[in-house]
């Protein structure tokens, strides 16, 4: 018969309360047990003395007989100084899953594309600002003057026409 030291749940819904029991490993979690050796109330604070109550002598007896504690009970026994528990190491515990990694890569790509677009916009703005500061070629200067001259000439007659018409008309009043 394989013996197990484990938690048996009691209490009401959303209000757990556990008994630390020695039971046959094949029996149900909350079913028949051989002996109750303590209690565990997770609702109490971690510094409360009543959070974990454990009969150390009976726990040592059952360990000597061959009862195997579950991981949670082994933690309680280690905290009470009854049985050493080797620390487990899971280096991948904090590593995100595959889907989370894919989403992070997509976000990184979008951010990189956005930063590149911003850099291009700044570069083009800097190039546009630097272009008038540079000394342009004589051909470009002549083209710029010839392109601007008709536009200025077209603006001037249009500006004179409304003012002339307003001066020609008699003032009402």
The main β sheet shows up as:
5 strands, mixed
SSE arrangement, N to C: EEEEHEHHH
Helix count from the secondary structure assignment: 4
Distance between the termini: 120 Å
Commentary on this structure:
This protein has 173 residues and is an alpha+beta fold. Among the domains are: 3-80, S16 Ribosomal Protein, Chain: A; 96-133. The protein has helices spanning 56-65, 71-80, 98-133, 138-168, and strands at residues 3-12, 15-24, 35-40, 52-54, 68-69. A 5-stranded mixed β-sheet has the order 4-3-2-1-5. Strand 1 (3-12) and strand 2 form a beta hairpin. The longest helix is centred in the last third of the chain and has 36 residues, at 98-133. The chain is elongated and about 115 Å long. It starts with a strand and ends in a 5-residue tail after the last helix.
